[in-house]
Amino acid sequence: xxxxxxxxxxxxxxxxxxxxxxxxxxxxxxxxxxxxxxxxxxxxxxxxxxxxxxxxxxxxxxxxxxxxxxxxxxxxxxxxxxxxxxxxxxxxxxxxxxxxxxxxxxxxxxxxxxxxxxxxxxxxxxxxxxxxxxxxxxxxxxxxxxxxxxxxxxxxxxxxxxxxxxxxxxxxxxxxxxxxxxxxxxxxxxxxxxxxxxxxxxxxxxxxxxxxxxxxxxxxxxxxxxxxxxxxxxxxxxxxxxxxxxxxxxxxxxxxxxxxxxxxxxxxxxxxxxxxxxxxxxxxxxxxxxxxxxxxxxxxxxx
Length: 303
Description:
InterPro entries: METL9, SAM-dependent_MTases_sf. The protein has one domain (38-79, 102-293): Vaccinia Virus protein VP39 (Rossmann fold, 3-Layer(aba) Sandwich). Strand 10 (262-275) and strand 11 form a beta hairpin. It has helices at 10-32, 56-69, 72-85, 91-98, 108-115, 135-141, 154-162, 195-205, 245-259, 299-302, and strands at residues 49-50, 103-104, 123-129, 144-150, 166-168, 182-186, 212-218, 225-227, 230-232, 262-275, 282-294. By secondary structure, it is α/β, with parallel strands linked by helices. Strands 1, 2, 3, 4, 5, 6, 7, 10 and 11 form a nine-stranded mixed sheet that branches. It has a two-stranded antiparallel sheet with strand order 8-9. It is built from ten helices and eleven strands.
């Protein structure tokens, strides 16, 4: 391991030690992204937890983000345009127009681990709800013959269409006359005006028995809806109990998902990453990523 022990110059030694300390701090931070205390999860959730790690796909995204954040003139232009447009246009649409702000939820390897599939596994249809620029859709899309996506932002729709995905209106995907093998709902539940209604629509739209929902939720759960650049409370407020990541995962699993007829098949902790800007190399939030399957009944139908 490199150290600054044999560097003679006090200034160089100080710079070297600071550089090593920052590197060690970064390594500690990335380890925290995946940390979970399984004994704090509910008994029914503990055996379903999958431990994830920083892998090559995640490292590649972080490397690209760091490189882009150093493009000073590009970042200055992005900052200026964002300032001008933000009172009138949603942040998502601004990012779509500028071609920035790509998100990263999981790598191909992590996706396969969650679904317990191999590289050669194929199914008929994928639907990615709120797909953004399609970067995460691409990670999943190789496993499906047909890829559908929804997105509210017009600039983001253009990105999806350029990737040759079939873009559906947000009120159209439930009424196509066919069902989906996998539906992904990634970090959408806390930005949805009626999250329980969305989950019920997803359940009806999955292929019976074999259909799966991949759902990512930022924790702690803080729901807001963006309307014309303004953040507002959703009409249907979904209250998640618990203070820790583990407590909120347990509450989602045992109460929220079960209420609408889903049961958890797997869950992991992953960082929800976003490309950075002139101030930060990247941004990160805590995600819980679930694989859900429809149960035979829901608490609603039992009442």
